[in-house]
Specification:
32% of the residues lie in helices and 19% in strands. By secondary structure, it is of the alpha+beta class. The N terminus is likely disordered.
Length: 255
């Protein structure tokens, strides 16, 4: 297969090939079958990921057993037309889950997933913070208001809180960056420290559950490190508790 066009390689070599510019109208099963047939010529394909959601359409990840196979595939398949569209290839930005599992086992895979989730949540937190800053920023006007040059008088209602929601914009709980303390809300009133410890104590590095005496339905859960908090949040958020199985809300503590 001679390459019809040259694609830009932006990532360092690894065993996972990132494929884009794929025909989006093809069924996922048919696409995966075609990709497997093509890339299997260059080495053992241990995993192939292609999804149909809007964000992932037209893309796929082909995971080889070794880097050499990925290098051969990129060299030979770059620009090859599949369903009348030239494929554009590069190395993946990160190691695939399958590669991590084969090289480091299940524990390493779990850690890899936690790091990925933490990075995703940090990005979401950063975006939310930037949006909050944007909402707080007043519009800049270059026009000169003649009224503003007059001596100022004390305005009626001075010192009252603005009703403009943008003035007090804060990062939503869901987008707070990861830390080692979780804030749990919507808890049934009959859940005590022991009951919550049974739920949250099974995650790595658990330290304690703290209830708030003056507030019902909330608690703080502390871990030794972010990793334990990330796993606990991922596993318990939305969990139904109590007789009505009311879903609990689990976020990171606001710093």
């Amino acid at each position: 297969m001679a390459a019809a066009i040259q694609g830009g390689i932006t990532q360092p070599p690894n065993s996972t090939v990132y494929v884009k510019n794929l025909e989006e109208r093809i069924k996922i099963d048919d696409l995966k079958e075609a990709l497997t047939e093509i890339f299997s010529e260059y080495g053992t394909v241990i995993d192939l990921v292609a999804k149909k959601n809007l964000k992932a359409k037209g893309q796929a990840f082909v995971v080889f057993e070794d880097v050499e196979a990925a290098e051969r595939a990129i060299k030979e398949v770059q620009g090859f037309e599949l369903f009348e569209k030239p494929m554009l290839l590069d190395y993946a930005k990160t190691r695939s889950d399958k590669t991590v599992e084969l090289e480091g086992g299940e524990e390493e895979l779990e850690l890899h997933k936690r790091r990925r989730l933490a990075e995703k949540e940090r990005k979401q937190a950063h975006q939310a913070a930037e949006e909050a800053k944007r909402l707080k920023r007043p519009a800049i006007s270059t026009a000169v208001d003649p009224v503003s040059t007059r001596p100022a008088k004390a305005a009626r209602g001075a010192g009252l809180k603005s009703s403009n929601p943008a003035a007090g914009a804060v990062v939503p709980d869901e987008y707070l960056p990861p830390n080692k303390i979780l804030f749990v809300q919507n808890l049934p009133e009959d859940y005590d420290v022991d009951g919550l410890t049974q739920i949250f104590g099974r995650f790595e590095g658990f330290r304690e559950v703290r209830l708030v005496p003056s507030r019902k339905g909330i608690a703080f859960v502390e871990y030794e490190a972010e990793a334990g908090a990330i796993s606990a949040k991922e596993s318990t958020s939305g969990m139904g508790l109590g007789a009505e199985s009311k879903p609990i809300k689990v976020t990171y503590q606001r710093q």
